[in-house]
Amino acid sequence: MCRACTSNLSHEAMTVEEAIIFLDNLVYEQTEKHLSRLQQSIIRGVVGGLTYKEIQQNEPIARGYTVGYLGRYVGYNLWKELTKVLRQAEILGQEERVVGANLWDCIMRAVQQGTQPAKSVDPILQKLLRMRYRIREHLVSTEYSDTYLADDENLPDRPLCLVKRLKSQSERTSYLFDRETRVLYRLGKHDRIPELLARFEEDGYFYLVYEFIEGQPLSQELIEGKPWEEHQVIALLQDILEILFFVHKQDVIHRDVHPQNLIRRTSDGKIVLIDFGAVKEINTSQNSIGQTKSRGGTQQDYIPPEQAMGSPKFCSDIYAVGIIGIQALTGMQPKQLRVDNLGNLIWQKNATVTPQFASVLDKMVLYAFPQRYPSATEALQALQNLGVSSQ
């Protein structure tokens, strides 16, 4: 419902951004989870009277998604979540539900019932950690952690950094904390991996502080219906594989390679690989199907079958990179692609591509992992052998 339709309400002075803050606080109060930035963009657009197509065109974070995905998946699940929250708060009856058309009315009903929570429900906002890191904004929430934007008040100009707080104090959380710290320390100061600046415990929580990378996620560049030129895709894949070459040499599998975790750095246009929270270390003497199973990692469309079954390999990262390459080359979302009777992707008819490059991509995304390039070393060499330099 657009703002113009609510002029008869006593709280009509509430702005769209205040409405988003209100809902975010209410959701956090009920679930201890914040609305994602994509969910906030949907709310902003719907309250402003936009269609999903207009939201996709006007909200930068929504540009990497199809209109159908925004409406049938993000929007649908958002309305379900808000319905549950508002019912628990006794704002909606059990037979009522939130939809785009009544969203503003539901917000007004909550305000009129006096249910608006304190402006900052999350007590960590504006808190100074370690007498140094001033928490400014909540960015993302996962099953195991919350990530915040912060100022480093000990340095000149108070540069931005990222602060990750693990959610629980369990043995599992302690293991994740130690694992991510150990791996990031091993990876050292690679130019295109965010530097680990600090690790500490405070008030019973584990914290990791990272370098902040200014840029935009690759997902905003991969626009449906707008395929890239072959030389652009080759340059992109070389950029990603150069980072994974280093990561794999440290006996580490990233396991979460997808467009949201690849940032195009503003300063030089280079790709930076972020979020090492799902990494898996490899004991080279036990690098087999019998290794410890772990399922976490990549968004569903970029997960190869062996990783989905809990046995990631180095070539699991290569599969994800190949999917990104095919997505860029075809201008299609991975879920739109079909597979043959061997489980391999059918994609070449949707792209303008040379046979040589198509062969490299096919090998990167083979269903049977033993037939793929074993690691980033071999995949990067295959691209370099094409004789096409980065543009």
Task: Give a structural overview.
The chain is an alpha+beta fold and 391 residues long. The chain contains eleven helices and 13 strands. It has helices spanning 16-31, 37-47, 52-58, 67-88, 103-112, 171-187, 230-249, 305-308, 314-330, 355-364, 376-384, and strands at 128-129, 133-141, 145-152, 160-166, 196-202, 205-211, 215-217, 252-253, 262-265, 271-273, 280-281, 338-339, 345-346. The strands form four sheets. The protein has a six-stranded antiparallel beta sheet, covered by helices on one side. A hairpin with a 2-residue loop joins strand 5 and strand 6 (205-211). Helix 1 (16-31) packs across helix 4 and helix 7 (230-249) runs antiparallel to helix 11 (376-384). The chain is globular and about 65 Å long. The N and C termini lie far apart (46 Å). The model is unreliable at 1-12 and 283-298 (pLDDT under 50).
Summary?
By secondary structure, this protein is α+β, with helices and mostly antiparallel strands.
Distance between the first and last residues' Cα:
46 Å
Q: Got a strand count?
A: 13
Secondary structure tally, helices: 11
SSE sequence, one letter per element = HHHHHEEEEHEEEHEEEEHHEEHH
Strand order of the largest sheet: 1-2-3-4-6-5
